[in-house]
Write a structure and sequence with these properties.
The chain contains 15 helices and 6 strands. Strand 3 and strand 4 form a beta hairpin. It is mainly α. About 65% of the residues lie in helices and about 5% in strands. A two-stranded antiparallel sheet has the order 1-2. Strands 3-4 form a two-stranded antiparallel ribbon. The chain has one domain: Alpha/alpha barrel (Glycosyltransferase), CATH 1.50.10.20. The longest helix has 23 residues. Bound molecules: 2-acetamido-2-deoxy-beta-D-glucopyranose. The site of 2-acetamido-2-deoxy-beta-D-glucopyranose (NAG) has 4 residues, from loops. Keywords: Signal. This is Mannan endo-1,6-alpha-mannosidase DCW1. Pfam families: Glyco_hydro_76 (PF03663).
């Protein structure tokens, strides 16, 4: 028995390592072992049908001529990412939409929005598009998307470290230099880690890996992760760049998670992945209600359109952890799965009218926007991909 256990562990360890390093394009068999697919097929099918119906509704808000949904710029990058996530696990359901949407948005969005090359005044906006096109590359294998992501990334790379000297590095939120925030810096870390795994020797060895490590070390040293393992909004430029004590936004608890997992793939150092689990569990414990439903602190009446988008980004990253993390205690994995299922169930039961999904996932349902729709869809696609 003992010898068997050791041999089993050795097999598992081998699988684990070869799966983790270096980055490999995912294949659907990696994610859905046959047994779990058979055991839970009915549940997954339900979530897939919710997702399909809500995506069909969402497409009534898409303009092929602008390549955008309701003309919302960074939101549309997140819609692309959500659709690519859906395609990763359920390609036959996603491709009727994405076969035209991916190339149309790539070609039309920059011109229609007046942001040539996906470049505008905000580094976070630019990096959302970097993540979107990396994800599209992952599911299509089409090199032009990865090349686009790498080109957009250069604008942020060139600006990294031009912050006030008290900040000791980091990336401005904007080109007007009004603030230094968690969002752009988490996005930078995650984009760099993902590029490092997909272009390990292009344009030169370690080109992106070094940026990811630099961004990680800076972020940890910045003090933005508070004593409860929650991430505040940003730094106080008037006060030596200390943690500004600003709002704990759900998206800031999510963006960094997939970057940390990929940093473990790139380095072989499990501590990044362990930190991702620590941060994710802290947020699930702190920002959900007694039914396990995630809330933005501005709910129900204080959220701007931008804030309406945030929760899905956390959910999307929990799905990534569940399926792709290489360091994953069994109870943590169960927590992630039930988090996504509870939230998707709540959305469909209490926050949905005619396939339109509102802001507050526990209901009562309110009118939907592209932000609330795509955010809730991230949770539903996430539940489908873990069920
Ligand atoms: C969540 O964290 C905040 C601080 O960010 C704290 O005030 C609050 O008590 C925490 N809530 C729970 C339920 O842990």
């Amino acid at each position: 028995m003992l010898r068997f256990t050791i041999r089993l562990l050795a097999v598992l360890f081998t699988i684990n390592v070869s799966y983790a390093l270096p980055y490999e394009a995912p294949s659907s068999s990696d994610f859905h072992p046959l047994t779990s697919r058979l055991n839970r097929r009915a549940t997954a099918l339900d979530y897939v049908s919710y997702a399909t119906a809500a995506i069909d509704q969402m497409q009534t808000w898409y303009s092929a001529s602008t390549g955008l949904w309701q003309n919302a710029w960074w939101t549309s990058a997140n819609v692309i990412t959500m659709l690519a996530d859906f395609q990763e696990y359920f390609p036959d359901k996603a491709e009727p939409t994405t076969n035209s949407v991916f190339p149309t948005t790539l070609s039309n969005a920059p011109t229609s929005a007046g942001n040539p090359g996906f470049i505008n005044g905000f580094y976070d906006d630019e990096l959302w598009w970097v993540l979107a096109w990396i994800k599209v590359f992952d599911v299509t294998g089409d090199q032009q998307y990865l090349d686009t992501a790498a080109t957009i990334f250069e604008d942020s790379k060139n600006a990294w470290g031009t912050t006030p000297s008290a900040c000791n590095g980091g990336l401005w939120w904007d080109k007007a230099h009004t603030s230094v925030n968690a969002v752009a810096n988490e996005l930078y870390l995650t984009a760099a880690a993902k590029l490092a795994n997909r272009r390990p020797t292009t344009p030169s060895g370690g080109y992106y890996y070094n940026e990811a490590i630099k961004a990680y070390n800076w972020f940890i040293g910045s003090g933005m992760i508070n004593s409860q393992n929650l991430i505040n909004d940003g730094l106080d430029l008037a006060n030596d760049c200390v943690n500004n004590g600003g709002p704990v936004f759900t998206y800031n608890q999510g963006i960094i998670l997939s970057g940390l997992v990929e940093l473990t793939w790139a380095s072989g150092d499990s501590s990044y992945n362990e930190l991702a689990n620590t941060l994710a569990v802290a947020t699930i414990n702190n920002m959900t209600d007694s039914s396990g439903v995630l809330h933005e602190r501005c709910e129900p009446n204080g959220c701007t359109p931008d804030l309406e988008q945030f929760k899905g980004i956390f959910g999307r990253n929990i799905q990534f952890l569940y399926n792709r993390a290489t360091v994953m205690p069994a109870d943590t994995k169960t927590l992630y799965q039930s988090f996504l299922q509870k939230n998707a169930n709540a959305i469909w039961a209490d926050d949905q009218i005619n396939n339109q999904l509102g802001l507050v996932w526990s209901g009562p349902s309110q009118s939907a926007t592209i932000q609330t729709q795509s955010s809730a869809l991230d949770a539903i696609v996430g539940a489908a991909a873990v069920s």
